[in-house]
Amino acid sequence: MKEELKKNLEQLLEVNNYKGKVTKLQYLTGGASNETWKFSLSSNSKKTDLILRRSFGDPSPLAVLKSEEASIQKLAFQQGAPVPEIVAVADSGSLLGDAYIMKCIKGETIARKILRDIEYKEARKNLAYECGAAIAKVHQVPTNKLKAIPTNSPEDLLKQLYSTYKNFEQPSPVFEYTFKWLENQDFGEQKNKLVHGDFRLGNIIVNKLGLQAVIDWELAHIGNPIQDLGWICVNSWRFGQYKKIVGGFGDVGDLLKGYSSVYKNDITYKQIKIWQIFGTLRWGVICLIQTYAHLQGRINSVEKAAIGRRVSETEIDLVDLLFLGGK
To answer: Which of 287, 306, 305 is closest to 296 using CA atoms?
Structure first.
């Protein structure tokens, strides 16, 4: 399998003016429908570290195609956002399937290490500001160049989420209350922007100097940009460092300062908290999706079975945010 993959990678790269020998091919992560591989391309005395991202099996109904993901990254790169440079995109005739290759950015993505290791102590100090500036640049991508991704209003997102939740016939009084509460909230009147859709620890690359790249664009869509700011504040993405609202490492004030350094705006703390509550509910429903993929037999996965307990964690977080003054 590896030899065939190497051959297919070399062919795609050569078509894109990157000729060489693929070495050090390493499988990084998996999932129900995605693969990530790291490898080197050696040519004479030059070596370039690259990443392959590709789909396989049944595509997620929530995810954009990898070819679309690559197009989004190219536009964000042109806008000056910290994203890996795209090297090659597989066409419909490629043996790699729906895939793209990008340059490898050195750094860490594992949340526990970023939040706790001494190596990232200095980086953590400015990380919230850098995240704000990075996502603001993403939000400046011209939406008229985004033809293949969906546009969703807050109302659309809420209706879609409720429909998904109801399909499981697993009633939750906390979820039901939160859906009703969100129907009457001000999500913020913002012009539609490119929304990353999963902007959080785990989808950013950090080194000892700070933020290096934003990755994993499969949930990208066009909509209210505050969604990204609320999502990174969800308690589940603090990984135990609950006192720091932004990703377990920073404060909302610094996030907004970074955002405002790129794009002047009227976003308020209250609007971010509303999107944080929406994000917490959204993650709870996603946990249901993951759990039932196992329970209904589509995917045999202990990991997906275990994620079921996180449904109750999101219920606790929602009670805290809605009734107990949680942040």
So the answer is: 305
